[in-house]
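subagent[fold] <- orchestrator: predict structure for attached chain, return tokens only, no commentary.
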Amino acid sequence: MSKATPPADNGKQKVRSAEVGTDILKALAQLAPATSLSRLAEHVDMPASKVHRYLQALIASGFAEQDPATNHYGLGREALRVGLAALGGMDVLKVAAVPLSELRDQLNESCFIAVWGNQGATVVNIEPAVRAVTVVTQIGSVLPLLSSSTGLVFGAYLPERETIELRDRELAQSGQDASHYASLFASIRERGLHHVHGLLMPGVDALSAPVFNAMGQIVAVITVVGPTSIFHADEQGPAARQLLAAAKAVSWRMGYEETR
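subagent[fold] -> orchestrator:
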């Protein structure tokens, strides 16, 4: 009497099938907006015949579609709905909470995250340094655009239309030249972070890095601040590397794919 296939084996096959299907969906996203069967098969390192079978199932469920004019494949309407639902549930404050706390623990310096509000860069969460003397801003504080590392990073990545009114107001108060900031913003985008030494507060250094969403838009800035005597806000130093790692981890969780 032959033995029936154990249910566990069938379950493993289903899990493996689901993994292959998600691999193909990820590849369709990476090769968007559309790709040929041969290129898709090469990308996932599978036989084209196998990829084609999975594509037919994905098309039937609405997660993939085929252009009748080119025969190329792309993500379908159901994949879009799932993606939009995931994006809608992304809260940068929740996503950044653990990385921000871990960054504070690594550096033992005050770390905070700011978002762009109606008045400018607004502090929304703080992890203060654990020691007798700490440098802490307040939740709800609005930082200047041109005289804080946080504001300058926002200025480098936000569309000019969102910052120009505040920029012009601060320039009028300081009497500085706008051309200086145009080149500074370009430099910040090139380096991916910015530091200041005592610019906003004497004796306090700050180091800031941007957080991006799935569309590549800046949604927050993470900043580390500390006394100049003990905190080294060097853009090539260990604190900068750890800050960048934290910002990139949050950006990745927000759906951002770095291209450079």
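orchestrator: received. Logging for downstream: Residues 7-87 form a domain with the Arc Repressor Mutant, subunit A fold (CATH 1.10.10.10). The CA atoms of residues 226 and 250 lie 22 Å apart.
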